[in-house]
Design goal:
With about 70 residues, this protein is α+β, with helices and mostly antiparallel strands. The protein has helices at about 20-25, 30-40, 55-65; strands spanning about 15-20, 45-50, 50-55.
Length: about 70
Amino acid sequence: MHTMAENTPGDMSEAQFLTIAEVASRMRVSKMTVYRLVHGGDLPAVRVGRSFRVREDDVNEYLRKSFYNAG
């Protein structure tokens, strides 16, 4: 099992990659917010040409770690 903290790609044959727009849609934030997360190192991404792709697992892990418990 690979976690975002390890930052090692491992076997990518089963990885599902999302575009910045798809990540923004799933997180209900703007694309600029996703770009900030990627450039700030908070969300790992792969650069493909001039665009980025983010592993779906990394998005889920980021959201899990960012969950805020107000109680």
